[in-house]
Fold each of these.
Amino acid sequence: MTELNDVFTLEAGVNYAFSRAQNGANQGGWNWGGNLGMMSTYYTPRNMDIEAYESLYRDPATKAVETTTPWGILRGYLHNRDMNLDQRSENSLLSNVTLRAKIAPKLTASLQGNYNYYGISTMWQSYGQGANYGPTGSGGYGRGGNNSGSYNFLGMLQSMENKLQLGDEAITVDGILAAELYGNKESHSWNKSTNGGLVSPAVFAFSNSVNRITPNFDYTPRNNQAFGLSAILNFAWRDQLFLEITGRNDWLSTLTYPSYMETGMNNYTVFYPSANASWVFTDTFDIPDWLSYGKLRASLSRVGMGTAAYATTRGFGVFSQSAQYDPNRESVLIANPNLGTAWNNDLKPEIQQSIELGTDLRFFDERLNIDFAYYKTNTKNQILTVEAVTEAGASSQLINAGNIQNQGVELMIEGTPVRTADLRWTVGTNFSLNRGKIIELDENVKEWRLMGQYDGGPEIWAYEGGKFGVITTPYNNPYGAAIARYQNEADPADPRNGKPLISYWGKVGSPNSVPIYGYTTNYDKGVPDRVELGKVEPDFLLSFNTSFSYKNFDFYALVDGRVGGNFFSNTYKYASSRGTLKSSLYGRDQENGGWQRINYKGETVYDVYPLDGVFDEGSTAPLASNPNTTIDVSGLTYKEALEKGIRPMPAGAFYTYNLGWGMPAELGLQDNTWFALREVTLGYRLPESVLGKLGVNYFRIGLTGRNLGYLINKLTDGLNPASISNNNPLTPMDIGTVPFARTYAVNFTLRF
Amino acid sequence: MNQIKYIILSFTFLFLATGCLDDYRELNTNPELLGTVDPRNAFTGATENWNNSQRHHLTGKYSGVMQIMQYIVGSEGASASIYINSKNNARPSPYTPYYSDYFGQIGLRLRYLVNTVIPLNPEKERYQDVAAIANILETYEAWLMFDAYGAAPYTEGLKLASEGIGTPRYDLYQQDINGKALYKVFDEKIKENVALLQSSNENQYNLGRNDFFYAGNVSKWIRFGNTLRIKMAQRLEKADNAFYNSVITDALAHPGGIISSHDQSAIYHHPNEHNNNTDDMQALTTSYVASRALVNYLKKYNDPRLPILVRRNGFGNGNNNTENDAVFATLKKYYPNYDKNFSQWTDRYVGMAANPDSTNSLWSTTAYFTIPYVDDKGVAQTMTVRNNSQIESRFYVKNGGKVSNTLGVREKEDQALYDVSQDAITLFTPLITYPEVCFMMAEIAQKKGSAMGGKTALTWFRDGIRASMEQYQNWAEDMGVPSAMNENSDNYNPITTAKIDAYLARPEFQSVSLEKIISQQWVNLFMRPEEAWAYWKRTGLPAFKPQPEPENGVAFFEELKSGGDALVIPRRNVLPTPNTANVENFNAAVESLKADPNYGTAVDRTEGRIWWDKP
C-alpha cells in the first residue's frame, strides 16, 4: 500500500499459484480395468502374486508386454501405470488494485478491481505394448488446455464513526454505499491429438502421427454479469450492542431472455435485505469474573441468486447446426433443435433466507470458550431440473422449486487447561448437525431424482415433505431391487417375520452340480415401488483438535469424522461375488461358521453358507438323497429345510449367484461412519535473537502430515471413505476404490 | 458540496444499470444457437441415425429379437431368461426402440419441423415436399410404436409447447381418443402425403444430400408410401379383413407403384463416421453364435447365402486367421482321425441349439470346444477349437469389431489382411427392402389365390429369393465381408447369378406354399429381425419342431423348453410408465387395453397380444 498524496492511497496485490498433477488414481467407472481396487479384488484371484507377475510381464530385451498368459486386464493396467503419462498443470493468477480516497474527515471512497485468470494445460503420452513400445500405429500423444477468467469491480462510499446523540447515549453509526459489478471473461479450450497412433514408437511429437490430425478449438464468449447496489448501516452502542442493517439489489444477466423470446418475463432483478445484531452482554451487566466474555448474536438475512448462463434458452427450440460427413463422406449440414427440456418463460431468482442465533461464551479469562449457533436456511425458488412427461414433448423441465430447508446446529468448545509463559495446551472440539428437508417442491412435481441408477445399483431421490437425499431401489427393475421379506399377517410375533424370502433357482456346474438358492426380490413378487434403503446425510459431524506450544515449538493435531449416513460401494458389489473380501469368508469353512454337508466325493466338509432366509410360498427344493425329486418347502427357514434333507448350497455358489452386478442394492450399502487422523503438524519458530541478526521479523519451519489414517472406519473390508466418485455430497458412491494416501509437507513462513 | 457530487454520481450509476436490460439480454443469448435454419438441415437432424443411434439399439437387438427369432444364440448357451415360463413370474420382452425414439427424437423433431419450422419459413410453400416426406416417416415410426406397444399418446402427445397439453391422453391402436381406428388414421395420413408428393412440381425444394434414405428422389418416397400402406394393412388381415382388402387394392392401383427394385429399397444410410467405435457392438462377434435353425436351413439347400451370413468353425483349414489355422494344425497332428472323432463339426458350418434345455450338452454351452492332448514332450495340454459358427457380424458392426481387450485375435479374420478402412464403410439400417416386398406380395397373392400386383405367388416367391440373394451379396460387398469381396479370402464364395440359378432350379422351389414363403422371408429379414418377429406373430411361422431340420424348402424353429417346461416367445412390449404427473392417463389406457381379453391381465403380461395379433 502506498500513499500517493494526502487524499489517495493505492494498494495492489498479486497471487500466483501453480500446480502439476500426474497420473491421478483412477476412480473406476467405465474404466474398471484402470482401477487398482478392482484389479486386486475382481480381475485377479486373491492368491495372485501380483509382485511376481510385475517382474515378468514385460520382456527384458524387447520391452514387449507378454500376451500368452490370461492376465490381459492386469497387464493392461500395469502397462498404463508404468509407461503412460497423463498430466495436468493449473495456473491461477489473482490480481487486485484498490484506490482509496479520503474525501472528507468522515467520508472515504474506494474503488477496487479484481481480475482472475485460470489456465489449465494437459498432456498425455501413451506407449504401445509391442516390441520396443511399438508397433507402428499404437500409442499416442496429445495436448490440450483451457483458459478462463473473471473480474470484479467494487466501488464503496463509506462514512465511519459518526456520532448520533440520543439523550445521554451516543450511538456510533457507520454507513456504506457500495456498487459491485462482476462477471466472467471469454474462455477458450483446445486440444490436439495424434490420430491412428505413432509412426515411430515412443516419439511424442505431432509430426509422428500416422493419420492426419484435426485439432479442436472451442470458444465460449463472455456470458455472465451481475450488478449489485447495496447500502449498509452499522449501529453500535457503547461497544456492547451492535446492529447491522443491509439492503441490496442485484441485476442478474442469467435471468434475462434473448430478445427474440418475446414472452420471456425477464425477472432479472432481486432485492434482498438482512439484519443482524450482536450483544456483548458481559459488558452491559455485572457478571462474575469467571464469565470473561459473553456475546449473543442473531441474524436474519436473504441472498438472491441467478443461475447458469443461457439457462433461459433451454427448450425453446433453437437449433445447433454442424457439418458432418454424409454416407458418401461428403459434408452436409445437420441441425437439431434444443427440445427435450420444457421451456420456462418465467424463471425467477433464487432467494435463500437464513436465520441464525448464536452465542460466544468465554470463561476463566478465555481458558474455556464455547461457541454455539443454530441456523435455519430456506432456499426458495431454487432453479432445478426435474423430470417431466416425455410424451408431452420434454423429458425434463426447469422449475423454480418451492422451498428447500437446511436446519442445524454448530457447537465449538475450546479449552486451554495449561497456560503459562512457556507452555500452552489447548483442546477443542467441533460438532455440527444438519438436517435437510424439502418443504415444498412444485405444484405438479412431488419428487426429484438426484441420481439415476448407475451400473445396476440404487438411485438417490428427494421427496416433498421428506429427507433431502434418500437412497432407494429403482422403480420396477429387477436389478438393484429390494429383497422381499416374509411377513405373517396373522402373527406379528412370528420369528420368521422380516427374514428374506428365498427360492430354489436351479443347479449349476457339470458334471457335479450344486444347487443355487437365492433371494426373492420385490420385482419378482410384482411389487414395483421404490423402497427406501438409507440416507445420504450424516447424523452429525464431529472433530477434535489439540494444540500444544512450548517456547519456540508448536504442535497441532486434528481428528475429524462423521457418524451416520450411507455409502454405496460398487467395488464391494463386484468384489464380494468373487470371494476376495474378508467379509466373503463367512460360511466357507468351519471356523468361519460354515455348516456341514457331504460333497460329491463323499467327504464331510463345512462350507454350506448359513443362509438366513425363509422359502417363499409354493417353493420346492431338490433332495440331497435324490436330486431328481423335489419337496415342498414353503414357509420353512433354510435351516429347517436342510434338516428336511434338501441339497445344501456351498458358500462359493451363494456368493457368485447372489452378489455381483444387479444384486439387491441393500447388500452393498455401507455405514458411512468414520474418524480420520486428519493432520499432525510440528513447528519451530526461530528465536528473536537469531531473527534480529538475519533482519527477519518472523521465521517458522513446519512439518505436516495429512490424512494419516482412520481411527474408526465402519466401511467394511478396508474400503476407503475417500474413494467417493465425485465431489457431489448427494451421491456418496464409489466406482472402484483408491488406495489410502498420506501427504507430508514442509512449510516455511518468513516475514520481513 | 463534494458529498452531493458523489450522491449524484451513485444515482447515475443506478440508472446506467437499469438501462442495461438490453445489454444483458444480448449477453445471455448463446450465439451458437440459431433461430432459423433450412428445413432440410432440420430434416437430416430429425432422422439422424434412424432407430440405431446408440449402443443399446444394437446390443438390445442382439439380445432380444435376434435371439428369439433364432438367428443367433448366446455363445455360452441358450438362455431361458428371454422367454416366458408360465411357472414363474418373470415377463421378459425383446428390446424395441420405437417408443423412446418416437417421443425422444423422431416424433418430437419431425413434428417440430412440420408444425413449426416449415410454417414459419418465408418460403414455406416450397417446402411442402419436405413436409410430406417428414409426415410419412413420422407416421411410419408411430405405427411401429403402436405395432409393438398397443397404445401411446399420439393425438394429444408432443403438444406441450404448442397447445399447453402437459398430461396427454393415450390413444389405442384400434381406437384413438376421437373414437376413430388409429390404423385408419395412419393409412389416410400416408395416402394424403403420397398424393401431395405425386402432385409435386419443380418449384419444390428437393432434399438432395440431406436425405440419407433416398437422396431426395420423390418418386421413390411415393413407392415407399404405397408399400408401407400395404404392409400396415397386412397386419390387420385377421382383425379387420375388409380394411386389409380395400387398402391393398387402393395402394396397388396408385400410379406411383410400390418398391420394385433394389435401388427403391428404403434403407437409412448412416453418416460415414457413425459407430466407428465398435466397443459394445462387437458383442455380436464375441458373445453370440449362429443358431442351428438358421444354419440348417441354409445348409440343407446349398444356399449361396450360407458363406456370406455364417462363418466357418475351426474344424478345418482356411480360417482366414493364422492362429486358428495353427490350432487346427495341432488338432490334425494329434488327432489324425479328427474327421471321424469330430464328424459333427467338420462340415464347418455348425449352428448352436436355441433350446435352453440343450445346455446340458457341452456342445451347446460354449463357442470353443476344449480338446485334451499329450504333446511331444509328454506334457498333458489342452487346445480350444471353435465348434459353433459365428454369424457374420460385419453387416451390423464395422469390420466386425476391433481386436482389443474384449475381442481376441482368434475371434475374427486377421485384421491386417481382411479389414477394410473404416472410412470406406458406411453402416445402414434397412426399413423396407425389395426382396421383403416380393415375399409380402407372394403371401398376399397366395392367400388370394390369384395374381396380385401383376405377378403370381410363385413368381413373387422366386423373384424374392433371387432379390434376397443379390441384396445380401451387395450388402456384403459394401460391408467388406471377405467371403463376398476379397479374392484372397480362404473362403471366397461370392453369390453369383449361376449359384442363384442353381438354387432356384431345385425341386423344392418349383412350387410355392405359405410355409415356404415365410421361411424365405425369415432368412431375408436377418437385417430386420423386428419385422421377422411381427411375421411370426401374425402367421405362426416358422413353426416349432424338436430338432430344426428343414423339410421340403420349409424352415423350422427349434422347440424351446427349460427343465422340461415349455417356453413361450413374448408377443409384445410393456407400455412404459410415464412421469407420475401423467400416471392417471396411463392407468386409464391400461384399463382400455385390458378390455381386449387377448392383451393380458396386466400391462407386463408380455405373452398377451396387441389388438391386431388375433389368434
Amino acid sequence: MTRISLIAAALGASLLAAPAFAEQPTPLIAQGCAGCHGQSGEGQGAVARIAGYDRDAFLAIWQEFRDNSRPATIMNRIAPGYTDEEVQILADYFASIQ
Amino acid sequence: MTILTRRSFGALIGASAATLAAPSLLRANTTGRLVIIGGGFGGASAARFARITYPEVEVTLIEPYPTFITCPYGNLILGGKRELPQITHSYDGLRARGVTVLQDRAADIDPVAKSVRLASGADVGYDKLIVSPGIGLRWGAIEGYDEAAAQIFPHAWMGGDGSQITLLRQQLEALPEGGVVGLAIPGNPFRCPPGPYERISMIAHYLKQANPTAKILAFDAKEGFSKQGLFQDTWAELYGDMIEWVPGNQDGKIVRVDVENKLFISEFGEEHRVDVGNVIAPQFAAAIARDTGLADESGWVPVNSRTFEANAAADIHVIGDANIAAPLPKSGYIANSTSKTAVAAALAEMTGQPAPSDPVYFNTCYSHGGADYGFSVVGVFRPTDEGFAETPDSGGISPRGPLSELAENRRLEASYADAWYDSITRDMFS
C-alpha cells in the first residue's frame, strides 16, 4: 500500500481518492477513438497507430480529412463531426502517449 | 479535496457495511460500489473503464453466461469466415483487473434499498447501478414463434451460449441443393440495424461456394434499411439473382410462422415455404429492464441524454440496446462509447471528479458484404435538450460505385472491420 493510500484509508477514502489517484486520465472525447485505434491509440492491424503522433501533424491531417483533401476511407466522415477545441484535446492527448 | 455530501456519506456507510458483510469483496480505499448488470458491449466496457479510471471504486459485474459471444462477427460464422471460439470472450481479463464477476442472473432491482436481487437469491448492494442487459425477443409477436419454434427457425440474434448461431450454420450446411433460405426481419427499432443485411450477404457468400443454386428470400417488415444502397449494390455485384429482398409495402411483413410445415406467412396471407428459416423476431429491452419498470410502454428505457440515468429511477443508468437513444443506433460501438460517459456521470459525485460536460457519442458500424468487401456507416452524436442528435455535416456511409473503382476501398474497410473487432473486444475484456 502506498503512503497516499494509507493516508486515504485513515482519513476516509472518498476525501482524497479522486485527486490522489488520478493519473493523466484518458479524456472522454478520446474514448471514441479506442474502438478502432485501441485504448491508447496503439493501432491495430490496418488501423493506424496514433499514439505519440506529432501534435501539429495530427491537427494538419485532421483538417485535411475534414475538408476531404486527403485520400480516406472513413476518417473523412468522422473528422467533420468534431469541433476545433475537441480536436486539440485529441491531438494533445495522443501526442502525450509514448 | 472533495466536500463530503450527505449523499456520498451515506454511500460510504453503505460500502463499509457491505465490505464487512462480505470479506471476500474487501478492498482498500473503496469509495463506493458500482454494480453492472450485463457483460456485453455496454457492461464489459463499463466495468473495464471504471476499474482503470476510478480504481478506488469497487466494481461488480452480474452476467449469467460464463463467456461472452459477440453478435458482431456472428454473421461471419455463417459465411464460413470465423469459428465460434474466435468470437467467444472470457471474463478473466476483467477479473484480473479487480472486477468481481458474478455468474448469475439479475432477477430484480430494489431502487430504494439500492440492491440487485440475483436469481440465486443473494442481494448485491450498490451505490450506482449500470444496467446494460441488451434485448429480449417478443415471443409470440410473430404468431407461432416461441422459444420452442426457435429450435426449428433459429433467431441467432443473441449470443447466449452460442447454440443459436451454431444451429443456423448447421442448417445452412444441410440445406438441400437449390433450397430456400428465408429470413424474417423486424421493423424498427431493433438490435444492429445493418445486421440482417450483413447476414444475408454472409449466407450468400457461403452458398455461392457450397450451394450456388440456392435462393435467399428476405422478408422485411420495413421499406428501407441501413446502408441499403451499399448492400443492394453488393448483392447485385457479387451474388447475381440469389437474393430477393421483399419490403413491407410488397407484403414482406411476416406475421405467422408454421415450424412444422416450414412456412412463413405474410400479412396478407401469402405462404412461403422455406428450407431454412431465420426469424429475427421483434424486440424490446431485456426482461430486467421491463419487469422493474425502467422501460416505458414502448418496451425500451427512456434515459437522460447526458448521463444515461433512467427517467424512472435515480442512480440507475441504462446503456446499450435496452435504452431509447435514437438516432444513436443499437450497436456494439454505441454501447461501448456511451458506457464511458454513463460511468463518468454515475461516479462523478462519488469520486469528486467532474461529470462529463459535453459528451460525444461515436459510432462506426462495419459490415462485410463478401470476401475482402467491407463498408461502413459513421455517426457522431451529441446530447440535446430533447434527446440526442447527429452532428450536422458529419458521418454517413461509404462511397457507392462499381467494384472496379472501389475494390481497394472495400478491401481496406474489410481490414478495418477486423481491426475494429480486435480493438473493441480488447477495450471490453483485456
